[in-house]
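Hi, here's the filled form for the chain we discussed.

Project: internal
Contact: R.S.
Residues: 160
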Amino acid sequence: MRKGIKTDIIMLARSIKNLLYCSAIAAISFASCKKGDTLKTFSEGSYTGRVISTTVQSGNPVQTVLTANIDFSAGNYSMNTIPRDQWPYTDFIPFTGTYDLQADGKAITLTYISLLMPPMIIGPGYVKGKFDISFKADSLILTQNLADGAGYQYRLVKVR
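And the returned structure, exactly as it came back:
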């Protein structure tokens, strides 16, 4: 009878092993499924996230990350990116302008319009120019690569 118990234990161990494998495969499959709110095309609305500014200093890339809140509506954009601790007169510096979708929604051009700022302030590079549009899960990614190795990248999630 001893041999039967040993066989039962081996069979039980194999069953547990198979169950663990199946559970792991199910968990990986479930985790890799995309969310139902996956972005596939650009749409107007409010987005929040960050803008990563890359500059080149002494031949090396240097990144600055700022919070970004952007509203796109009827061909216009409104953006808040510079926090109060970097600009003492307001909670955020507002940037406004127009936008134009191009290349079948694969690019967007932002044109900065200075309404609240003195005329000599033309706005930072990340509020103007042509940006490539891409999507990753529920994120809208706007990327602008400049010739000198500098550039800007927005990583945004739609909030409404």
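Let me know if anything looks off before we file it.
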